[in-house]
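Marked as duplicate of an earlier ticket. Keeping the data here for the record.
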Amino acid sequence: MADHIRDAETVTPAADAAPAASVVVDGLPVQNETPGIVPDVPIASPEAVVAGEPVPVSKAPKRGLRAMLPRRSGKLVVGLVLTLGIVAFSVVAPLFSQSPTSTKNKEYLPPSTEHLLGTNNIGVDIFAQVAHGGLGSLTVGLLAGVIAMVLSLAFGIIAGYVGGWTNEVLSFITNIMLVIPGLPLIIVISAYLESRSLLLVALILGITGWAGAAIVLRAQARSLRSRDYVYAARVAGEKAPRIILVEILPNLLPLLAANFLGAVILAILSEAGLSYLGLGPSGSVTWGTILNEASTQNAMAYGRWWWFVPPGLLIALFGCGLALINFSIDEIINPKLRTAPAAVKNVRLARKRREKGATVTARPMPVETAARDDEKVQS
């Protein structure tokens, strides 16, 4: 008899067992979602269970390229509008403006329909300078960003993946570049050069602005080289360059995009600072050179705001737009930032439900019902 019972217990199916995602241990519900894993049973909040509401259906996580794109938010929309708008202005406006070196106009003209931003001390149209200067500043920023990104990739990912003496040598060079103050070094290099082109200024800014990003990429590469798929590629006989390009680099694309945008912002601000000090590109027009000319001619003292406000405002708005896009990309890199908006939304929803429930519970009793109850008590 005991053997039959033991056999029945052995072959009893476990189909009636509760799913793992619905088990509650010590009164605490399990985690609703695990990064990269879809739970078999969607979990509802305790308030929804008490109220008898239906269990929400969880959405499958984004995969592939969609998982690397920032989610749509107010920061991303505003950043894209500012950035793309200024880029479109810098590309299209020079086609409909005067030459930035033409001196056929009168000096110190205020803004008008003929000259939207007036003229400077030698009769050059300031709107034409702002339009052409935007293209110069963006060129310096993009070139410096690309140079900084390439150097950070070479010194960061190679050092983090290969390790050994290669890591020691590359890390030593990175630490040296990190402790050297960037702006004073740029000022010294620019001061010793008699002629400075846009390409040369971008090269100087790119060489001096890659060390911080290389340290971050090295740490991420050291973490990724210990993953299972990297070990599988090594066992399969894949070479190190292919592993870096195929297995490691795609996982670092959001981080690379954030570092690239940061390098572009830093390069544009640094170029504006150098040009304001008179150490910018020679013979070229940028937003920084316009500010330098306005400062030299005391435009602020004489109230000629149309000379220094537009270039300074464009620099600030473009940097703000890139920073907002960078914040949206950070939500992909940082898991806490990725889940923070949903957590805040859930907390606000639960608070509203509690306030609504308290309002319904504390609703006063009608006067007729209260009087009828008093009569019953007295009788």
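See parent ticket for discussion. The two ends are 69 Å apart (CA to CA).
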